[in-house]
């Protein structure tokens, strides 16, 4: 009888996993096709394609985040073709991975299969669909979360594989974006030191050390083969971003709303978990040695790390996916350490369902993360009117939300104009897809353009000279004859870098400007 019950349980679990895979995949594919915010939505489209053309981050374009996302996108383009659907498939499969592993982790703690499924389906809705497209913050966060799961399973089961995977996830998270990966990694290091010293557990060190050495060695070898200068990596990815971080610390504003009110449902979700563990710390002898204490500490520090990241970056909030995870672990601890109160459990499930619907509607349906929450999607136009590679995309952007046809006409005119120009050209734009659409090297020196210095050093920054030399060398080495800028990239951007005597500017259409490269001292 036990064998029959076990068989049906395993079969039922496989059905739930299949359902989670399909749901996680299709919900992200659906919302990834719902409008675009060019600077964010296309941030890895051209750069992923450029890797296939033999152009690499740090060497051929200035990068302050996302090289791992670029390489992973190149992988998807290589195997699934260069299209919008293969682009968002990248994000969709990350959504699948996070959801399925979360479900398996919850089941490893013996959480009821139906409860684990409720929390996992909620996670599928709140995780990647808020962006829909590959995005550095999401990748960094979810790879960090995989590192957290590896740590939990490593401690729980003394799993060698988990200790091997832990540094790999954290390194890839860091190479997606420095933060929140650094915050999560620091919290993991603190927990591991505490865990190792208190419990005299040293077995994990050799596995994680060898794994760290291996993955870093592989990355160095790839960089060497591709001709990426290590100093360029340090300047672009380590040193320059620190100057941005310093500015954000200076202007950090903490108040009741942004610290407490904005994250109220996250705090509510962790309240029971926090209460039960604080109580056990004071009432259970040697609780600080028990695995359950470390699982609690890991989850709490993950939450703190991600909230700190949101406060410092001041971007749209995307970490509401923590709610089902925190509620799931709260549920596990209630079952283990408290009398099961049906009213409390019902309230927890209702909180999960309510917050999932609330943030799904705001960030997925209304597309708030990509600034599309005030857009009427009925005005959207099929993306394949621009190019067949955008088949399936409903094109509408915040800037042209009331005149979509005008934007599409301007993009098509720009695409045609660039295609007809056979000169060696450089294109600087936030519509970061022209290289892929034209199947050409367009030598853009940056991923996208942001006036406040997020994409590149400004003139008053100490790394501006490095950036200026980087641009000039790209122009000279590739024998660039003309540079195109597409609004909102201003003509003053090139004038500041090269000077008026090095370029001759011509306006082509409402968004496209042509800058012929002249003979001048700076470029000789």
Briefly note the structural class of the backbone. Answer: mainly alpha
Rounded radius of gyration (Å): 25 Å
**How far apart are the first and last residues' alpha carbons, in Å?**
84 Å
- Major sheet: arrangement of strands: 3-4-6-5
- What percentage of the residues does DSSP assign to strands (E)? under 5%
Uncertain stretches of 5 or more adjacent residues? 1-5
The total domain count is: 2
Q: Report the principal-axis shape.
A: globular
Keywords:
524 residues; mainly alpha; 20 helices
Structure overview:
The chain has helices at residues 2-32, 38-41, 45-52, 67-80, 84-108, 113-126, 136-157, 160-176, 178-199, 204-225, 230-250, 256-259, 264-283, 291-313, 322-337, 342-365, 404-420, 434-438, 464-477, 491-498; strands spanning 381-382, 394-395, 425-428, 482-486, 503-507, 512-517. The chain has 524 residues and is mostly helical. It folds into two domains: 2-32 and 63-248 and 260-370, no CATH class; 383-523, no CATH class. The strands form two sheets. It has a four-stranded mixed beta sheet, covered by helices on one side. It has a two-stranded antiparallel sheet with strand order 1-2. Residues 1-5 have low confidence and may be disordered.
Topology:
Layout: H1 2-32, H2 38-41, H3 45-52, H4 67-80, H5 84-108, H6 113-126, H7 136-157, H8 160-176, H9 178-199, H10 204-225, H11 230-250, H12 256-259, H13 264-283, H14 291-313, H15 322-337, H16 342-365, E1 381-382, E2 394-395, H17 404-420, E3 425-428, H18 434-438, H19 464-477, E4 482-486, H20 491-498, E5 503-507, E6 512-517
């Amino acid at each position: 009888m036990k064998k029959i019950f076990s068989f049906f349980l395993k079969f039922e679990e496989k059905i739930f996993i299949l359902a989670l895979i399909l749901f996680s995949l299709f919900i992200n594919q659906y919302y990834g096709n719902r409008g675009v915010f060019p600077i964010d939505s296309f941030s890895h489209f051209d750069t992923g394609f450029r890797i296939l053309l033999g152009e690499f981050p740090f060497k051929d374009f200035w990068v302050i985040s996302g090289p791992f996302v670029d390489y992973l996108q190149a992988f998807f383009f290589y195997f699934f073709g260069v299209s919008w659907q293969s682009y968002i498939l990248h994000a969709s499969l990350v959504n699948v991975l996070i959801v399925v592993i979360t479900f398996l982790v919850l089941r490893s703690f013996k959480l009821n299969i139906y409860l684990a499924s409720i929390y996992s389906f909620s996670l599928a809705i709140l995780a990647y669909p808020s962006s829909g497209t590959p995005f550095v913050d999401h990748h960094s966060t979810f790879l960090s979360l995989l590192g957290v799961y590896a740590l939990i399973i490593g401690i729980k089961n003394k799993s060698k594989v988990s200790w091997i995977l832990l540094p790999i996830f954290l390194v890839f998270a860091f190479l997606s974006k420095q933060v929140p990966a650094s915050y999560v990694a620091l919290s993991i290091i603190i927990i591991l030191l505490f865990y190792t010293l208190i419990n005299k557990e040293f077995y994990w060190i050799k596995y994680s050390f060898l794994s760290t050495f291996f993955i870093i060695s592989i990355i160095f070898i790839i960089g060497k083969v591709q001709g990426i200068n290590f100093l360029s990596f340090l300047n672009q990815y380590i040193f320059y971003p620190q100057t941005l971080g310093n500015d954000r610390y200076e202007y950090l504003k903490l108040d009741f709303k942004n610290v407490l009110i904005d994250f109220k449902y996250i705090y509510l979700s962790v309240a029971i978990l926090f209460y039960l563990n604080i109580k056990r710390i004071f009432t259970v002898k040697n609780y600080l040695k028990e695995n359950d204490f470390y699982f609690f500490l890991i989850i709490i520090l993950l939450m703190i790390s991600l909230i700190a990241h949101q406060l410092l970056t001041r971007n749209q909030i995307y970490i509401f996916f923590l709610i089902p995870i925190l509620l799931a672990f709260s549920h596990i601890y209630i079952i283990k350490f408290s009398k099961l109160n049906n009213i409390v459990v019902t309230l927890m499930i209702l909180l999960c369902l309510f917050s999932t619907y609330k943030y799904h509607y705001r960030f997925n349906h209304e597309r708030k993360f990509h600034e599309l929450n005030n857009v009427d999607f009925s005005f959207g136009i099929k993306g394949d009117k621009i190019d067949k590679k955008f088949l399936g995309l409903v094109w509408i952007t915040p800037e042209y939300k009331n005149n979509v046809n005008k934007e599409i006409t301007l993009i098509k005119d720009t695409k045609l104009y660039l295609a007809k120009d056979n000169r060696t050209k450089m294109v600087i734009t936030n519509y970061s897809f022209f290289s892929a659409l034209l199947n050409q090297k367009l030598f853009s020196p940056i991923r996208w353009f942001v006036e406040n210095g997020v994409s590149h050093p400004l003139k008053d920054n100490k790394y501006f000279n490095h950036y200026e030399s980087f641009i000039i060398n790209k122009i000279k080495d590739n024998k660039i004859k003309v540079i195109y800028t597409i609004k909102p990239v201003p003509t003053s951007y090139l004038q500041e870098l090269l000077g008026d005597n090095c370029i001759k500017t011509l306006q082509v259409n409402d968004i496209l400007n042509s800058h012929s490269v002249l003979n001048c001292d700076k470029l000789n």
